[in-house]
Amino acid sequence: MDPYEVLGIDTSASEEEIKNKYINLLAEYTKNQDDTTPVKIQVLNTAYNKLINGRVYKEIRSLIDKRNFTGAEAKLNIVNDRNSAEWNYLQGFVSLQKGWFEAGLNYIKTAVDLEPDNTEYLSSLNKLQSRIIDYITKYQNVKQSSNPNSNNMNACGGGNNSGNGGMC
């Protein structure tokens, strides 16, 4: 999707021109509603966010590339556009780096839900899900191959020679 084409503006349009065109199109879509209006508004919002927040998102990606996750998170908190697929994707990546796996996965799932055709988001989600499957498989294999009595310890915290007849 070309955000300039969606908004019907030139690539040299100023931020003011982008905002004015967005407001005018949004008003037009709202005034002349039909069955396609929600989709049109979603596409319009996505295009607008890409153009307006695009520079900030590039900065955030640069911070992530430099492993400056604190700086990236601070910028994401300033933008705080939870309806943007890009925001959710980047927030998911930062969350994963902080060790918040479930939150990170949920943010990336949201990004994919918002932009299901985005190959970068889909690829990241698929990699995460693949890692989950690998982890579960390895965990189950370790659990099955380990012998619970191999450490000669019982549930009471000692070996069977505790002098209490094997009872706790």
UniProtKB/TrEMBL annotation:
<feature type="domain" description="J">
    <location>
        <begin position="2"/>
        <end position="68"/>
    </location>
</feature>
<dbReference type="GO" id="GO:0006260">
    <property type="term" value="P:DNA replication"/>
</dbReference>
<keyword id="KW-0346">Stress response</keyword>
<dbReference type="InterPro" id="IPR036869">
    <property type="entry name" value="J_dom_sf"/>
</dbReference>
<dbReference type="Pfam" id="PF00226">
    <property type="entry name" value="DnaJ"/>
</dbReference>
<dbReference type="InterPro" id="IPR001623">
    <property type="entry name" value="DnaJ_domain"/>
</dbReference>
<protein>
    <submittedName>
        <fullName>Heat shock protein DnaJ domain protein</fullName>
    </submittedName>
</protein>
<dbReference type="InterPro" id="IPR011990">
    <property type="entry name" value="TPR-like_helical_dom_sf"/>
</dbReference>
<keyword id="KW-0235">DNA replication</keyword>
